[in-house]
Structures are given as C-alpha cells and as structure tokens.
Fold each of these.
Amino acid sequence: MIFRQLFDQESSTYTYLIADPATKTAILVDPVLNQVERDLKLLEELGLNLRYCLETHIHADHITGTAKLREVKGCLGVVPDHAQANCADRHIKDGETLQLDGIAIEAIATPGHTDSHMAYRVNNDRILTGDALLIRGCGRTDFQSGDAGTLFDSVTQRLFTLPDNTLVYPAHDYRGHTVSTIGEEKRWNSRFAERDRDQFIEFMANLGLPMPTKIMEAVPANERCGRIASPDTTNIISIDFSSTK
Ligand code: FE
C-alpha cells in the first residue's frame, strides 16, 4: 500500500493519499483546496489515478479540495452518511467498506465533533480518526451539531475497542505529532484517560476556544463539496456536478 501523510500549515490539516501500488488507483482523504496543486503534482509523480476523494466530516476550518479535484481528475466525492452535502457522488454508512482494489477502507461512525463524522479503518492496521481522536487530544464539540457526550462514547466505544497496535492518523495536529496508536492514546490521551463521561463533558464545555476564522466561508462551501459561491451568491464558480447519489 502507498500511504502518504500530507500537511497544510495554514489549517494544520493532514490529508492522506492512499493507493494500491499494483493498480495505481488512489484516494485522497480530507483534501484541502489550497493544497490541490501539491496533491495533483504528487499524483502525477507517482503515476497514480485518483478514483475518490473522501471526507471524514464537513470541515469548519478549511475548504475541501474535492470540487477542484473532481473537476480536474473526474474522481468521485464521498462523504459520510447524513452529512449535509447533496453535491456528493456517494454517501458512506457506518460499517460500509469502500474498496480501492486491494485496499479496504471501512467507515466507523464516530459522531460528536460533528453529528455525521466518520473514522476510516484502512486494511485493519491503521485508522484515520478525523477530528474525533487527535494525538493526545480530540476535536472540539461546541459547533456544527457537536456533542461532547456523544464524542466520549464514540472514542471510548468505537475507537478504543480496536486492537492496541492500530496506528492512529488524525485529521489535524497542532504540536508536531504525526502518528500514534490506539494503545498509546488509551493510556496517554488525558482527555479520555483521566476523565469519566461527565468530567469530559464539563471539560469540553470550558475550553473557551475562539471560533475558527474560516467557519463562515468553510462550512457552506464544504456543504457544496468545496465549490465557492461568487459574491452575488447565485453563481457557483467551478463545474456543477450533478449528484449521482
Ligand atoms: Fe473538524
């Protein structure tokens, strides 16, 4: 398996490029609009054909690169079941597997950061945890239908029940971490290791974080799979793909 972790400095977002080396088919998970040129260059250099763009959730801090990548590469945009994105080609449900030739990507519903968030287990040895579980942290729960109790349940019941040696690849990191394991997070992620459900809810209610600077533009754009509305709001810049859902 080809597996690359790519970083966007502005939003501290990790994008993952996964590909089957035998067939050269590829998927990008959580692509960032500002990094589309980087991703296209890497696909080209590795000789890969982009089949899917997959989102862990509707992001509030950056605009997805999916619309641009669909326009250029003709790939399919896949979003979690129930995500507010009618533009998607396909929705993926809890327990469903997206098969990328020799690579199996299994969706695991992990709501709490948003109400339709999915984590993706790749070939049973690693998991892309999105914003549900970060390394020694977790995504915030104070907007986009977030719910701290739901996130606690998702992490402790859906993620911490995976084998301890499962590699953890988050959607963001702000402190220089790149990868962890489920066993390491169970022991050292203080948000979960040192708190019960009620204590976690109280902790998350008092984080006092500012709103993401891009939330007002990012969420509506991401609900259109990354297409940007022009100032008159009626015109959408970029190609309008009809939904095949
Ligand atoms: Fe997020």
Note: The pocket of fe (iii) ion is lined by residues 57, 59-60, 113, 131, 139 (CB under 6 Å).
Amino acid sequence: MTHLMNTYNRLPIAFTHGKGARLYDEQGNEYLDALAGIAVNGLGHAHPRLTAALTEQVSRLIHTSNVYRVREQETLADRICALSGMQEVFFANSGSEANEAALKLVRFLGYKRGIEAQTIVMERAWHGRTLATLAATGSDKARKGFDPFPTGFVSVRYNDIDAVQRAGDADSRVAAVWLEVLQGEGGIYVADLDYVRALRRLCDDRGWLLMIDEVQSGIGRTGKWFAHQWAGIKPDVMTLAKGLGSGVPVGACVAAGPAAGVFGPGNHGTTFGGGPLAMRSGIETLEIIEKERLMENAVAQGDLIIGGLKRRLAAVRGVTQIRGMGLMIGIELDRPCGELVRQALDAGLLINVTHDNVIRMLPPLILSAEEAELIVERLAPLIVALLRSQSDVNSKTTAKAA
Ligand code: PLP
C-alpha cells in the first residue's frame, strides 16, 4: 500500500539508474528500454553531455519566473523556429499544457474574428488529459465519466480529407484542423503524406489554422525534426513536449503565419513554463541530436526493427500489421495483448501496449544496431507464443464444443 492516488496500473518494478538504452532495477537486473519513458528519453539515460549541462545549470540557476527575461528561453525558441521555419513559441511544462495553449490560441483568434471558433479533430486522436485536451481526444475510455467537457470540437475520421471538408461545410465557425501525423496513443496509425498535404491546401483555401500535435512524434523520433516535415509542409501551430526536454518536463506551443502574434501580455501564462533548467535541457537535447546524427540513426534502427519483425512475424496468423516511422513502431494483433508487457519485462525488454491490441515501441534515438536486433530477438518469440497459446485454447474450446 502507498499513499498514491490509484491512477496507474503500475508494473511491480522500480529502477535505480540507467545508461544509454539500458535500465537497472532495485535487484540489479538489466532491461533494454524500448519505451524511453514513453518517447521522452530520446538521448537514452544518463547521457554524459546532458548530465554535465544540467548539473552546471542546477548549480547556477533553476528558476526565476516569466516576470523576467529568460535567456535560455529565447535561445531555445530561436532554435525551434530555425528548425521548423515557424515564428514564435510559448513554453509550458507538458504536452497537455502545450496543447491547451494551442486551443486557447484558436479560440482567441476566433474571438478577434467575431466567431466561436470550432476545431476539427480526429477519431482516435490523443491530445492530453486536461479537460479541453481530453475533449479533443478520441478515446471513449479516457473520457468516460468526465462530462461536462468544453465544447468547440468536431471529430472526423482520420486520414479522410472528404470528412474534413464535409465538417467544414457544415459549420462556418470552423477555424482550425488539428491532428497528429502519426497517432501515437491511438495505435501508431500513420497518415498518408498526400492527406497531410491536402489538409494544408484545404486550410489555406478556407482560412483555417493547420495545427499539428508533435508531442510524441517530434524531436527527431521519426527521422525528421518534426513528422510533418516528411510531407514537406509547415503547420500554423505545432505543439511539442516529451523528447524536447529529455526527461526534464517541458512543452512548447509554436506558431506561424496567422497564428503568430495572436496573444498579448496577460492572455496566457505559466509559473514554471520556460524555466532555465528545462530550457537548458531543450537546447542541449537539440544540439546532441544534431551532433550525434540521431535522426539518421532513428531511421536506420527503425528500419532494422521493422524489417526484423516483418521477417519473423509477417506470416504469423494473428499479426495484422507492422507499421511505423523511424523509432515510433507499432505491431497490431487481431486480439488484445496487454499481457505481453509483463512477459516482455520478464524477458528484459520494456515495451507498451496501446489501444488494447497494438504493441508499441518508442526506443531512444541513441539505440545501437545490436540493441535494435535484440529488441526483435526478445519480442518476436513472445508474440508468436502468445498467438499460438491462444489459438490452442480456441481450437481446444472448439473441439470440446463439437
Ligand atoms: N499529445 C500527444 C500526441 C501525446 O502523445 C500526449 C501524451 O501521450 C499528449 C499530447 C499529452 O502529453 P502530456 O502527457 O505530457 O500531457
């Protein structure tokens, strides 16, 4: 028993330290980390350069507040704008908060235009756990019991441009379209790049903001700084978190074009957001990703993992699809497979299952080729065994019934 609120089904394990893509538990057992703190620890654990920079920062300055200029904040905003081609940044402390800022921005733009702005969102989307981001999130399970929600959202089918067009035709107050280029929590569904480009054109034609949630897919994870860059487009609003701080909490709402200059002093704010420690972590993270060519590595190791999994699993009955981009990888089965998380843990591998039947892996960007192969070696037999044992049970039950 602990005094923690019962919000998580935690695995019965605690880690004491990590190094690279490895974590060590209280008994000294080693695990290969294919989850990276849910896409947060892109640099792995205890990266020497990040450790040194954070230690230096902590010894000098952790927090001052947004009452004053924060030089590290200005530097990180410059870097993010240079990498994205966008214009301005509001720093928050998490993905949900970055998304709240984005939603407030749409509403405030609507207010200035004299409309109650509506945002088109996607089925299976995941944008966070605050009330507004949950209202925009397409998970009935996460939303259940939390009515009443803030209004202002229209949900449409993902990857379906006609559905977006129809929703826009039906309501003249639509002011924005919001999506993940890869749906992470929703089950690693990847949008067609043509669809993303068509959305850009549609938003331009109709004067809507194109908003992209890169909280999970951003900061090099798919092999580009931001997943939407694979489509060669630029959003008006982009949100970041997770990998940006390498574990130090940080979120960012980035704006460009019609979305820039919307807020003035007093329209939005935060006590902690953009503090020197989180900003330093962001600055170092981006520099390390660039210097160590980690985006190229994400593509190479992602290809190794997906290729290896396909070789060993593609013909196995019960494996529906193996998909992903870079180091954002999903294996969809035709049945729930939550128990695999515990089985993988026992085999020394940290993974996750989302949407009940999608095994999800988000390894650190520093993963080596040997580690990529080890992931496949440890995971593939577990999936085969799970599917076989359940087929055996099914055929025995059928035989009995007959
Ligand atoms: N947006 C996306 C795409 C996410 O994957 C998540 C978290 O999983 C969030 C937003 C919410 O981020 P946070 O948990 O930091 O509030």
Note: The first helix runs from residue 36 to 39.
Amino acid sequence: MDLILEEIIDGIGVLTLNNPAKRNALSLDLCAEMADALDHFKKKRVPVVILRAQKNAKVWSAGHDITQLPKVHHDPLAYDSPMEIAFRRIQGYPGPVIAMIQGSVWGGATDLTVTCDLAVGDETSTFAITPVKMGLPYNASGIMHFINRVGSNIAKEMFFTAEPVKAIRAYHFGILNNLVKSSEIEEFTFDLARKIAANSPLAVSVIKEQFRILSEAHPISPESFERIQALRRKVYNSGDYKEGIKAFMEKRKPQFKGK
Ligand code: YXS
C-alpha cells in the first residue's frame, strides 16, 4: 500500500500521509516513501509541495513509529535514520514545502511540521513533542528546528511538558503561519502554493537555500559565504532575473522559465 500518496494538482506537488490505521505514524517505510516522492517532484521541477493527511483527519501523524524505535543502547534518531533523511530532503527541496495540518500532531511529526518551510493549520490542529514521555534524548538538529521556529523558551516548554499545544497558541508561537477554518484550509493552502509558484522558481529556491545556510550558520565559514554568493550569482545572472525586470518595466506578468 502507498504510505504516501503522490499527486501533482494544478502544478503543485501534493503528498498525503496515507496510513490512517496506524495514525500516519512515521514508519521507516513511510519516511522512505516521502523522501522518494520529493525526489520525483524534484526531477519534474515541481516548484511548491503541500504535505497533508487525509481530509479532516483526527490525527495528522502520531509521530515516529514507536514499534520501530531502536532498542536501548542505540541512537533512536541517528543521522542516517529514515525520518532524519526525510527531514533533510524537505530542507533541501528546491522549493517551499508547506505542511497543511488538520488533527493532532505528535513527536517526530511536530518536528516534521517545524522542518517544513511553512505550516497552515485549522482549529483542530494540536502539536506535541514527546521525547520526555519516551525517556528519549532528542537530537541536536531536531532541537534546532524548534529553537529556530518558536525560540528557546517556548521550545523548552514544549519539550519539558510534552503537552499538546492547541491551534491558537501554535499560531501565536509561530508553529503555524496561518490558522484557518477547516472548511477553508484546502483552498487557502492551494492559493498560497499557487502564489509562490507564480514567482521565479530559481529565486525562490536560492532564497530558501540561503535561509537554510544562514539559519544553520553559526560562525559562517568562508566556504559557506562563497557558496551563498555563488547561489545568488546564479539568480542575478539568470534569464528569470532579466525577465522579472523586463516584465515590470513593460507592466505585464513575468513568464519565468526557472533559468
Ligand atoms: O493497535 P493497532 O494495531 O490498531 O495500532 C494502534 C496504535 O498502536 C497505532 N499507533 C502507533 N503505532 C506506532 N507508532 C505510533 N507513534 C503510533 N500511534 C498510534 O495506531 C493504531 C491506532 O492507535 P490508537 O488506538 O491509539 O488511536 P487513537 O485514535 O485512540 O489515538 C491516537 C493517538 C495518536 C492519540 C494515540 O495513538 C497516541 O497517543 N499515539 C502515540 C503518540 C506519541 O506519543 N507519539 C510519539 C512517538 S515517539 C516520537 O515521535 C519521537 C521519537 S519523540 O518521542 O522523541 O517525540
């Protein structure tokens, strides 16, 4: 069974978590399918991806598949674990990945949400990060995802209490970019995706990568600085950049080609 449904609707990539019987737990296979699906979209140059569960799901995802957590004396969130690989595929995807959330989100799935570039939730969405419930040491990159998204003090409250954060607080904390009614969330999220997809895909993808380098950057190494310059040069040397200026001058919508 496809644990991840992969569709392209109106030019937008849509990945649907598809294991409701197990509350869309992030099993090794589901995470591997997510990474593969993003690779397929990348080959097809899909500019924006929406990650969702089934319509009106009560549980968006129950987090890491507990039955597959490595036994004691093994790192449960190792760098090369399928969940971490899927997270890095999202971070490295050359376009925004938007989490569209209905229902409760648990553990590693909350990390998945704050790893996505944007998140849109409805009034049923809640977010819990639960390692302290499992006596499990979270990993450094996961903690950084939370610090970067909500700041240290809110991240500490979430990690120390493991309590679900309700939608309105999640919106105030910045876990959600937008909080919309259940009845409107699909249309809202697709409109957001289409708005982004109408802009220069090259500029959007390079700016996403700059955010990633800078948000992960502590003392930025000379190589990272030069890499940012090279990425930016790719954009300002591009036909899209010329087209963006030309269209503005000619008072018309730009036709970007992604190169
Ligand atoms: O008994 P069956 O075979 O029908 O399976 C049940 C559950 O065992 C299964 N299931 C899971 N299987 C593996 N891993 C999971 N995380 C998981 N969650 C659920 O799905 C079937 C239906 O579950 P059930 O009957 O409990 O559904 P429900 O609707 O009554 O309750 C839904 C939940 C999500 C509230 C409940 O399933 C639950 O509390 N699940 C565990 C949520 C959680 O603590 N997730 C954290 C996983 S650990 C993790 O993500 C990180 C490593 S960390 O700990 O660091 O955050």
Note: Strands lie at 4-9, 12-17, 49-52, 59-61, 97-101, 104-106, 118-121, 126-128, 165-166, 178-179.
